[in-house]
Specification:
With about 110 residues, the chain is of the alpha+beta class. Helices cover about 40% and strands about 20% of the residues. The protein has one domain. Strand 2 and strand 3 form a beta hairpin. The protein binds zinc ion.
């Protein structure tokens, strides 16, 4: 099973779950797949959402993505547009208040 990641920025260990409805996600007006149910969000993104600072959220997501995919640094304009699209759809399809995810301890 893959490690859970933040649905907004891709960082590991999301700590918040945002209830959401299913919808057909699109990027740049092109359908990109079905988003099913809740979104998992890391504490940094959660903090920016809580502050209502969408500009900082966009920049954080772009930075995190580029750090994980340094080869895509030349595509930052396209990636930023895609991030904005994803975040807009996140805000449009949220259905309730975020819930703290219990930290699951790995059984060693
Ligand atoms: Zn995040």
């Amino acid at each position: 099973m893959p490690e859970p990641i933040c649905d907004l920025c891709g960082a590991p260990n999301p700590t918040w779950r945002y209830p959401g409805q299913d919808f057909i996600a699109s990027i740049g007006g092109t359908p990109a797949g079905i988003s099913e149910g809740d979104w998992h969000v890391c504490w940094q993104c959660h903090t920016l959402i809580d502050l209502g600072d969408r500009k900082a959220l966009e920049i954080r997501c772009l930075d995190t993505y580029i750090m994980g995919h340094p080869e895509s640094v030349m595509d930052t304009v396209w990636i930023m547009d895609a991030m904005r699209d994803i975040q807009r759809q996140f805000f449009e399809n949220r259905t309730g208040k975020p819930v703290r995810i219990e930290v699951e301890r790995a059984s060693a």
